Q: What sequence folds into this?
């Protein structure tokens, strides 16, 4: 009984924080609510007996990913301050109907499932988890490292500064500019590149 | 502790993906040790890597079908031939990108590396036989395509396309993951082999969980395949992405997703009554075939029109998938209707083999045709009009036959192939696929598909009419010249016609692919 009340409290907290993540107007508030939601998820893991997963959740998500996100917000919005995010499409009715129907489907599926186990499965030890990573799940484990590499390359590709020659005219100018720029004259060239780009954009 | 023994045989199925990843890392390093501003050699490295991986996969394709790595992946001709097709598409896309990016001063090793990573993800996705592996492979494929979509960061369109693709792609992946979690809850396993074994009992005890899991997994895949009604993201993303990337998305991503879909549901259907997946796939196929072709009709923007056309082609592929799951037990006296399965010719086991052959040949045809069609569009784009709204307007093709007869002839071949007009590979692909569907008893659905593709022929012929019968406008763009683009387009055009006239050896190979693990 006590466990059920506890689960109810945690579930309501999780729902509320998740709801605030998508409704908060301020990007920083969104990230902070997300951190709370991730922490509450860790509590759910603890209640299920998955202690290792809970610890990883706190360390990686609440600790690492959240900090990264705050850094991301900080670095990308350094001039404009904190930007209020608008919901681009106001189709609340259609979205609401879809959400309600998906919820009804899942609820029906759960209600029609009489024989869920009453107690959670015995927790998997951290040792068994580590062994599974390197034996049974070895392909998934190795592909995960590939996934991280791809994500890093993709993020750099999208976030990198424009090359000096990328918006300009001549292909040959790319390489020397890129190598010399940070060493000799960082300020004037970095300033003039966007101006030149704007000028050429206006011509076209 | 029970440590499974890994052998070289276990690593054979993932070897093509390994080749692709090594090539991608070489390309990343090439950017570090760059000694020249001329980067065309990177495209050549990308192409050669893809061709090498394709050769490895082709060698694998003649191995007998079996499970490898404790049943987490399978080695069978179906997935390996699909890897060959993906590698072919990657090689062509890499060549097309060289000219396209060179023209925009945006050529970089990371682009080709991401293309190869994406191809590795497609190859791995096609052979996954376990939900966690499947999801991670799908993410490798997806994340590299998100980054490629937003690679050219000029103007609002690439940003919008990348963002839309990312949000909806992440959403669909989470649907798939949710469904897999529910199925895991019902069966206690994530390996398809064990899920298939446990499903009959699980379905008897917890039908709700199984149905919900089935529906969510299907919705997740339908997003990736871009089937109606999960197609909303397709036109915007295909239009905003760099055109060679659009070509790779329309051919490669779709091919890999269809194979993964078939593989997953070959095991998932074991517990359900066969009508459920059959009706679901038939409905998706019908909606996509009709919807894709009808939505393409009013488009004047050729790139957007080809995006809708790729939705229609997803519908034809799903028609083949529906034929695969047609219930074999239907009686001969059943009325021939849209959703009724009446075995007209042959018996069901033969149908499965011809469906696999049809799917593979159709995807081969679509790969070379879509790469060629999008490649021609890419060559006609000017970087300075990326901010304009009429960049890919039909008017741009007006009078192309007088100005550039070779280009017009190639584009005409691609358009006829997309429309399914003989003597192109598109016609034979449709013939095999629709023939297999009729063999499986889906006469009504096949007729609907043929009628829908007649509407499609109008769309494609309109481009041909513009090229050959309209005078060129004064400011008509000339295609830029770059040898890589020309090599890729000539190769595609030759393949479109040659495979349409002489399909012999390829169909012979594909018919041996009938033995598919899990069926």
A:
């Amino acid at each position: 009984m006590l466990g059920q009340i506890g689960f109810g409290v945690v579930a309501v907290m999780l729902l509320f924080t998740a709801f605030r993540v998508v409704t908060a107007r301020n990007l920083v508030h969104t990230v902070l609510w997300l951190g709370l939601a991730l922490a509450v998820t860790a509590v759910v893991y603890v209640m299920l007996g998955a202690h290792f997963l809970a610890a990883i959740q706190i360390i990686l998500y609440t600790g690492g990913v959240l900090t990264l996100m705050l850094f991301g917000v900080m670095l990308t919005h350094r001039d404009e301050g904190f930007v209020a995010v608008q919901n681009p499409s106001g189709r609340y009715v259609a979205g609401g109907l879809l959400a309600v129907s998906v919820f009804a489907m899942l609820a029906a599926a759960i209600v029609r499932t009489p024989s869920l186990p009453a107690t959670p499965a015995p927790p998997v030890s951290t040792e068994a988890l580590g062994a599974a990573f390197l034996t049974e799940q070895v392909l998934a484990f190795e592909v995960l490292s590939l996934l991280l590499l791809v994500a890093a390359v993709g993020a750099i590709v999208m976030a990198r500064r424009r090359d000096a020659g990328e918006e300009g005219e001549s292909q040959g100018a790319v390489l020397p500019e890129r190598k010399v720029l940070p060493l000799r004259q960082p300020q004037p060239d970095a300033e003039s590149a966007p101006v030149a780009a704007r000028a050429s954009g206006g011509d076209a | 502790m029970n440590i499974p023994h890994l052998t070289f045989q276990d690593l054979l199925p993932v070897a093509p993906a390994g080749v692709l990843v090594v090539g991608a890392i070489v390309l990343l390093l090439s950017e570090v040790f760059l000694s020249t501003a001329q980067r065309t050699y990177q495209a050549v490295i990308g192409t050669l890597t893809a061709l090498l991986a394709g050769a490895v996969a082709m060698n694998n394709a003649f191995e007998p079908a079996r499970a490898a790595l404790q049943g987490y992946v399978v080695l069978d001709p179906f997935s390996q031939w699909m890897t060959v097709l993906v590698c072919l598409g990657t090689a062509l896309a890499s060549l097309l990108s060289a000219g396209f990016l060179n023209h925009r001063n945006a050529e970089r090793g990371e682009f080709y590396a991401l293309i190869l990573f994406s191809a590795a993800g497609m190859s791995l996705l096609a052979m996954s036989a376990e939900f966690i592996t499947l999801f991670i492979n799908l993410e490798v494929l997806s994340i590299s395509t998100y980054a490629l979509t937003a690679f050219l960061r000029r103007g609002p369109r690439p940003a919008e396309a990348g963002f839309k693709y990312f949000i909806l792609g992440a959403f669909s992946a989470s649907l798939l993951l949710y469904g897999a979690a529910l199925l895991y809850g019902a069966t206690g396993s994530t390996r398809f082999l064990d899920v298939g074994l446990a499903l009959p009992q699980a379905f008897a005890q917890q039908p709700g969980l199984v149905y919900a899991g089935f529906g969510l997994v299907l919705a997740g895949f339908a997003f990736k395949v871009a089937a109606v009604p999960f197609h909303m993201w397709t036109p915007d993303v295909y239009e905003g992405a760099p055109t060679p990337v659009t070509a790779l998305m329309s051919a490669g991503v779709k091919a890999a997703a269809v194979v993964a879909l078939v593989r997953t549901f070959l095991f998932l259907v074991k517990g359900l009554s066969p009508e459920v997946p059959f009706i679901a796939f038939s409905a998706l196929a019908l909606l996509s075939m009709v919807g894709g072709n009808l939505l393409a009709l009013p488009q004047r923007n050729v790139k957007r029109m080809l995006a809708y056309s790729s939705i229609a082609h997803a519908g034809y592929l799903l028609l083949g998938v529906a034929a695969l799951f047609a219930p074999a037990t239907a009686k001969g006296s059943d009325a021939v209707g849209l959703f009724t399965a009446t075995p007209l010719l042959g018996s069901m086991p033969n149908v499965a083999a011809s469906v696999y052959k049809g799917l593979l040949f159709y995807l081969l045809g679509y790969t070379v045709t879509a790469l060629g069609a999008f490649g021609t569009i890419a060559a006609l784009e000017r970087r300075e009009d990326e901010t304009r709204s009429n960049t890919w307007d039909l008017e741009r093709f007006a009078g192309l036959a007088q100005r550039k007869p070779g280009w017009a002839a190639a584009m005409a071949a691609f358009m006829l192939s997309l429309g399914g007009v003989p003597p192109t590979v598109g016609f034979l692909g449709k013939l095999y696929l629709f023939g297999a569907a009729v063999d499986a008893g889906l006469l009504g659905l096949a007729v609907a598909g043929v009628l829908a593709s007649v509407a499609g022929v109008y769309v494609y012929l309109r481009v041909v009419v513009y090229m050959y019968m309209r005078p060129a406008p004064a400011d008509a763009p000339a295609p830029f010249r770059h040898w890589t683009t020309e090599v890729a387009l000539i190769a595609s055009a030759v393949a479109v016609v040659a495979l349409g006239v002489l399909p012999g050896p390829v169909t012979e190979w594909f018919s041996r692919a009938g033995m598919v693990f899990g069926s």
In short: The radius of gyration of chain B is 22 Å. The CA atoms of residues 24 and 113 of chain B lie 4 Å apart.
